[in-house]
Amino acid sequence: MMTRTVACTHRPSRDSNRTEVLRDEDCQNPKPSPVQACNRFDCPPMWDTPDWGQCSQSCGGGVQRRQILCKQRLADGSILELPDTFCPSKSPANQQPCAKQECPPHWVTTDWSQCSVSCGNGIQTLQTILIRPTVSMCSKLFLLCTPAGECRDSTRYCEKVRQLELCPLPQFKSRCCHSCRNT
């Protein structure tokens, strides 16, 4: 829409640069319209890129997501959602990495082990592990690989990682705990 100001004015004489503003009733009818439609064509389809959502984690490498849609603004002002094939080129990214800073070290405690004897006085152990999320530490301490290239977890630590649902963290999924790769 184009807009303009419409006012009833009067110039006292042809030679005068001065104009007087009068009441609308003092001018001839009809009063010219202050608005007019323009660009009466549909806009081309475009990608609608909303703001990024919240990061999935506060540290250690999370992901932000957003929903990208192909939309078209029509001449009447309405917006039409279209299939992706109607929009130019490929869709902008719908996710991006976030929270790239390393998480601070924290303690993880395993479940109690089985008792060392089936009757009498035995021993149960509880393991407490300080997790320092560095990929190099994980790859050296918690993954055993054979010369044939078969890898397996070397400690119960990785089982705890899986129980605590830490597998999505890149330091566990890609290098640390082989069992995380199946989740």
TrEMBL record:
Gene3D superfamilies named among the record's database cross-references: Thrombospondin type-1 (TSP1) repeat
Coiled-coil region list: none
Keywords per UniProt: Repeat, Secreted, Signal
Gene Ontology molecular function: metalloendopeptidase activity
Domain PLAC: start-end pairs: 147-183
Major subcellular location class: secreted
Domain of life: Eukaryota
UniProt-annotated location(s): Secreted
GO biological process assignments: extracellular matrix organization; proteolysis
Disordered: annotated segments: 1-29
One term under GO cellular component: extracellular matrix
Biased composition annotated in UniProt, kind: Basic and acidic residues: 12-28
InterPro entries hit by this protein: ADAMTS_ADAMTS-like, PLAC, TSP1_rpt, TSP1_rpt_sf
PANTHER family to which the protein is assigned, alphabetical: ADAMTS A DISINTEGRIN AND METALLOPROTEASE WITH THROMBOSPONDIN MOTIFS PROTEASE, PAPILIN
Name of the protein in question: PLAC domain-containing protein
Taxonomic source organism: Seriola lalandi dorsalis
